[in-house]
Amino acid sequence: MRNALKLVFVTVPLVAIGAGILAYIIANSPPPERITLTERATPVRSIIARVRAVTPSIAGFGLINPARTYEAIAQVGGTVDYVNPGLAKGAILPAGAVLVRLSPVDFNLAIAQANANIRAAEARLEELAVSEVNQTAALEIEKQALALKEADLDRAETLFAGGTVPQTVRDAARAALLAQRQKVQNVASTLALLPTQRAVQTEQIAVYRSNLETARLSLERTELSLPFAARVASTSVEVGQFVRVGQTAAVLDGIDAAEVEAQVLIAALRNLMHSTHISTDAVPLDPSAMTEALRALGLSAEVHLRLGQDVLTWAASVDRISDTIDQKTGTLGVIVRVDTAYSGLEPGRRPPLTKGMFVEVILKAQPASGVVVPRSALRDGQLLVADADDRLQLVPVEFDLVQDGIALITGGIAEGARIVVSAPSPAIPGMLLAVTEDRALMARLAAEGSAE
């Protein structure tokens, strides 16, 4: 009990003393320093909005084919007399070169036969003309003889009536008259047939002349000539070989122009049309309608051939649209024409565009103006913009073109605005930004967006 009381008497004074000291310290100490919370700026990168002209373009790939191909097909049969020494695969022959010549012997004989038939028919026609003159004169003579026979019969009838001559004399006169009438009828019939015979002979001459023209045409067709400069693709004929009608002696590819059927995405093609303010809803996915629409755009084209590290370029023109759409890949063939496929050749550096080369085709529309931004900066039709107070703003914009890594803004953004290209997460409108201008990106956009 005593120990407990001692503990109380010792502890209580100590606690009281400690409380007094603490109260004194609190009463005489300065108030605690207040800490003011400040807003933290989020670092972002930006570019300055600049209006530039951009060339809308799409790319496709395809194989080179000659714009024209000539098949040397025999139109007549015969034995080969001559084959052009240059008619070998890969060789280039000029326009007008004789490729193959067949033996003309049979056709020369046919021409001679036709000429002989014409001369014989013309002689027969002249014979008919002379015969007509002779028969006309003969008919006149026979008619005069008929008049005499009629007079003889009249006298015989008179004498018989008077009993001077017997009946036999009268009958003989009648028989002579009938015989003369028969002669007149025969001559008249011969004359009547002459116009028909002359018409038949005239038509026969026309047939013989047609045979002559056919023989001459066949003779011309014994020679197969090249209508335009071309490279030999294949040949299958030799001297002494018999060639049948319809047989192909050689195939040659024209060198004046080349074509490429580039496969392009239909969606990309429609976007290209949209960028030129042509309503894609008004253009059905029909090759003929698409062809007319592309011609209205005035598209230009380039053909690129990659040779190692080098890329060779040829100017081309959009010619037409392919007749089919690939449903599996969603692509449409756009056929472009290169009129300088064999121009500007440099051995070892710039080859001609020959059949089978795999090339890239770039289709370009007329340049369009707008603000060029990175494609990644466009989000759901909006851009992130830093205002004058470095606050984040979400601005709805209009755009006509999205290609490769850029988008072309045509409305909703003013030139000189600061467009945020590194979006903060989360992006809260009104948040404070620490803006850094990305000059490297601006230079790259200027290069990618420049109109050529």
Automatic annotation (TrEMBL):
A GO CC annotation given for this chain: efflux pump complex
Entry annotated with the keyword Calcium: no
Transmembrane stretches, start-end: 7-27
Coiled coil: 111-159
Domain of life: Bacteria
Gene Ontology molecular functions: efflux transmembrane transporter activity
Protein's UniProt keywords contain DNA damage: no
Keyword terms, alphabetized: Coiled coil, Membrane, Transmembrane, Transmembrane helix
Protein name per Swiss-Prot or TrEMBL: RND family efflux transporter, MFP subunit
Organism: Shimia aestuarii
